[in-house]
Design a protein that fits this description.
InterPro entries: HATPase_C_sf, Sensor_HK_TwoCompSys, Sig_transdc_His_kin_sub3_dim/P
Strand content: 5-15%
Largest sheet: 5 strands, mixed
Number of strands: 5
Strand order of the largest sheet: 1-2-3-5-4
Organism: Cellulomonas xylanilytica
Structural class: alpha+beta
GO molecular function: phosphorelay sensor kinase activity; protein dimerization activity
GO cellular component, one term: membrane
Keywords: Kinase, Membrane, Transferase, Transmembrane, Transmembrane helix, Two-component regulatory system
């Protein structure tokens, strides 16, 4: 498109040869010189129009020099007729095409209508001029062809812009996914690691064997977190509801928090299990990190998951990154997230399929 459009447009200049020949064959004189110069100038002007405005070079809206260029071309057509007579009116084909390239608007099609009127009328009122009504067909064919070409070029520009925007949005969405998953994965893993490391520190003088077991679990959690980060970056990581419930049970036990965690998952639809898994992870992280709770209860139905604790209750400062990430996931799954204070004064996280 970048090369073919301008080349095809410049090739059209050969259609000025009949006008050039008519002017060349005219008697010697100033009219002949002016006509030949005008035809050459028209060819150069039209070539500039095509190279400048055709294809991807033509932006939206009229070209700033449109009016001046069209006025110059009309003036050159008038000079061309001094010696070429009616043959000089072939320049109106190029004026019509230039108008479409320069104005970039359907209203430019009025220029070919004006050109057709001139081609019909002027040879009939100027003595000695031959009529060239067949030139009207050339005017309209050229104008329609170029109008279609410019519309195609405009659509291609719009498509390229849309593709660029889609690419930018895709990159932004991927960055958001990585940031959200990084927070959810590392936030949870580091919280559990911190709890277990603290427990191991307290057990060293009391139960060294169990302390070593806790440290071994910390090492395992660290390796698992590293593997999760690698899988998350590659987009291959997935969470499971059963796995998150088991992890929550283990984390609460290590933190000395009494927990009621469901064991049966049959009532949860497949399309909600991943969302509920992320909700369990976020709820567990919140309890371990912020709640200072002694009791936690996780309940599930076929369309709702609730995490209740008897800790401090919702923070006044508002939701953090983890809750925002969970809200985004819920929205994508057609669900909603609610945070409230429960009847024990603690924190309640609810994820419900939107009805």
């Amino acid at each position: 498109m970048r090369v073919v459009g301008p080349v095809m447009g410049i090739v059209w200049v050969v259609f000025l040869l009949p006008a050039w020949q008519s002017a060349w064959d005219a008697p010697q004189g100033i009219e002949r010189i002016l006509s030949l110069a005008a035809i050459a100038g028209l060819a150069l002007t039209f070539g500039w129009v095509v190279v400048t405005c055709a294809g991807p070079r033509g932006g939206p809206g009229p070209h700033p020099a449109a009016a001046r260029v069209l006025a110059v071309e009309l003036f050159l057509v008038g000079l061309a007729t001094l010696a070429a007579e009616s043959r000089g009116l072939v320049g109106l084909v190029f004026v019509s095409v230039s108008a479409i390239f320069l104005l970039r608007d359907p209203r430019a099609l009025f220029v070919p209508l004006f050109a057709a009127a001139v081609i019909l009328a002027v040879p009939r009122v100027v003595p000695g001029w031959d009529t060239i009504d067949d030139l009207i067909v050339s005017v309209f064919l050229a104008s329609v062809a170029v109008f279609g070409f410019t519309q195609l070029a405009a659509r291609n520009r719009q498509l390229a812009i849309a593709q660029d925007e889609v690419a930018v949005l895709a990159v932004e969405r991927e960055r958001e996914r990585i940031a959200r998953d990084m927070h959810d994965i590392l936030g949870h893993s580091l919280t559990v690691i911190s709890v277990k490391a603290e427990l191991a520190g307290k057990l060293f003088d009391v139960d060294a064997e169990r302390a070593r077991a806790e440290i071994a679990e910390v090492q395992g959690l660290a390796r698992a977190a590293l593997a999760d980060v690698r899988a998350m970056v590659s987009g291959t990581r997935a969470v499971t509801l059963a796995g998150e419930l088991a992890g929550a049970r283990q984390a609460f036990d290590a933190a000395g928090i009494e927990a009621q965690v469901p064991g049966a998952l049959d009532q949860v639809p497949d399309d909600l299990r991943e969302l509920f898994a992320w909700a369990v992870r976020e709820g567990t992280t919140n309890v371990l990190r912020h709640a200072a709770a002694s009791h936690v209860q996780i309940t599930m139905t076929q369309d709702t998951l609730v995490v209740d604790d008897d800790g401090r209750g919702p923070a006044v400062a508002g939701p953090g990154n983890g809750l925002n990430g969970l809200t985004q996931r819920a929205r994508q799954a057609g669900a909603r997230v609610e945070v409230a204070e429960n009847d024990k004064g603690g924190y309640r996280l609810t994820v419900t399929r939107a009805r």
